[in-house]
Amino acid sequence: MTKVYKQVEMIKKSLDLLQTELSRVIVGQEELIRQVFICLLCGGHALIEGVPGLGKTLIVKSLGQVLNLKYSRIQFTPDLMPADIVGTNIVNEDPDGKRFFEFYPGPIFGQIILADEINRATPKTQSALLEAMQEQAVTVFGKKYNLEPPFIVLATQNPLEMEGTYPLPEAQVDRFFFKLKIGYPTPDQLMEIIDKTTEEALPVLSQTMGAANILEMKSLVREVPLASHVKDFAVRMVMASHPQEKNAVPKARQYVRYGASPRGVLSLVMAGKVMALLEDRFNVALDDIRAVAKPALRHRIILNLRGEAEGIDPDEIVEEIINSLPK
Description:
By secondary structure, this protein is of the alpha/beta class. The protein is built from 16 helices and eleven strands. The chain has helices at residues 2-22, 30-42, 56-67, 83-86, 123-126, 128-135, 170-173, 187-198, 211-221, 228-239, 250-255, 262-278, 286-291, 293-297, 305-309, 314-324; strands at residues 46-49, 71-75, 87-93, 99-105, 112-116, 137-140, 143-146, 152-157, 178-181, 256-258, 302-303. α2 crosses α12 and α10 packs across α12.
């Protein structure tokens, strides 16, 4: 048990060090960093939504430096092709003049991948990420190439400007472990941003952990036990988002076409395990499930025409589920 306690303490300390180091260049966003850390330990990916200028790119790039992971950025544009992401075979020539195919890996061969403005690329190019996100491997001309663990995709999209964009298919959105929202900074935070970005050069960030530490923490997460009543609570929370279910909340019956998928309940459970460890517990509580409900479910609830017409936010539906679901 002493070893387990030390491992739990390592997870808490790792998050504290990560937030402390990132605070040297990032103002606020502690909750966002915490949720990305949860995704990393669960082996999931995150879709980050926010208006331009809130530091999404800087956060991901800084994470790569602090975590000592290979960082790679993919700027999605309408003319981006799948080969620009996964790589392609190039005809090369040896010293004897004999020609051969040589594989040149694309930017997907990193460990922390920034898919910037993912909704600006065509669905064909967006789909190039699917195999990598699900299998942690890519296939080029029939040959499979494994990606180096830990591997996480952090995709960004702008919720305001929809002209010239291609909304992500529901099947691809569902593959994101969390959907995270970046809020606008407060006046005090804006003042701090000015001080950090205009009066002095950005500091060089120190490495607080590496791939081996992350993989060790990931293995510990799966060992956290899950009581039957907590498992039942997670299932009931997901089923309450389905309009045809007898226990569906009123807003789900009114505004939802399809409720959260089975991946939703898996995200709730895995993220709940990390939350328990961060709270110095080796068992998952109902509050751990509630705490991760919005980022785990908001992108998996598909609104009907009425919900879209009235501008319903899926967070409102998740909030009603949290408040009304009996223990």
